[in-house]
Amino acid sequence: MKADNDIFKKIADQYVEVYGEKAKRELAEIERENKITASPGLEKRVWAGISGRRRYAPWFGMLAACVLMLIALPRLIKLFDTPPMTSTGDQIADKTGSYELLSLSFEMPENFSVEKVEQDIEKTIYYLADSRLDDVVMTMEKVSESKEYGELRPLIINDTTVYGASRAEFKILKFEKDDVLYVLTCKHDINTLLELSENIV
Predict the structure, then answer these.
(1) Higher pLDDT, 20 or 123
(2) CA angle, 27 as apex, 22 and 30 as ends, to 5°?
(3) Cα 165 to Cα 24, 122, 125, 127, distances in angstroms
(4) Radius of gyration of the chain from Cα atoms?
(5) Residue 170 and residue 188: Cα distance in Å, rounded?
(6) C-alpha–C-alpha distance, residues 115 and 88, integer Å
(7) What's the domain count of the chain?
(8) In Å, what is the CA distance from 123 to each residue of 92, 119, 190?
């Protein structure tokens, strides 16, 4: 706000200076045309008017700031009303909207902590920080029927079948629990995902 006031004060000061120069030019023009020499009293009245305008300069700046705020306010409201975007360009659904944020129903290993949570339409995305530097991204999505797992290899964890793959770029693990589809990915080691999934299934 101080920066805005400084800008508008500078504008007001420039306005006063320009007006003062204009008043001096007009006074000189009157003297030339009418052959009247300006009396000290007249000159004082001219500069008194300019000084009066200088006194009102701060009010001019404040008025200009108010006008700019009134113009900008509708745009600001629209900006904050727009849902944020995900990294894929999709709008994140409001937690109070038609999609429910799925909460964690299990206890995580000590080396994991929740860093961030997002709601991307029907998927809840948890970003899990790993103290051993193999962070995990876990999505949870309500499902009404079993999903196809393509080329993922079946594995047995706690008598439950999960499906995973270890690729050069990333590691992935998918499974269903209580009508929720879990998709876990990390960068370095498939065992990071297996350890985490043992606490879920």
Answers:
(1) 123
(2) 125
(3) 85, 24, 20, 20
(4) 35
(5) 7
(6) 19
(7) 2
(8) 10, 6, 22
SS3 49: helix
Q: What is the mean pLDDT of residues 69-88?
A: 48
How many CB atoms lie under 10 A from the CB of residue 130? 19
The answer as to whether 97 is a domain residue is no
Distance between CA 136 and CA 125 in Å, rounded?
A: 10
Each residue of 156-182: pLDDT tens digit? 999 999 999 999 999 999 999 999 999
The CATH number for 182's domain is 3.40.1000.20
Name the amino acid, one letter, at 51.
S
State the residue range of the domain holding 33. Answer: 2-81
Task: Name the average pLDDT for the chain.
Answer: 74
144 touches 154 (CB < 8 A) = no
118 and 75 housed in the same domain: no
Residue-level pLDDT at 99? 81
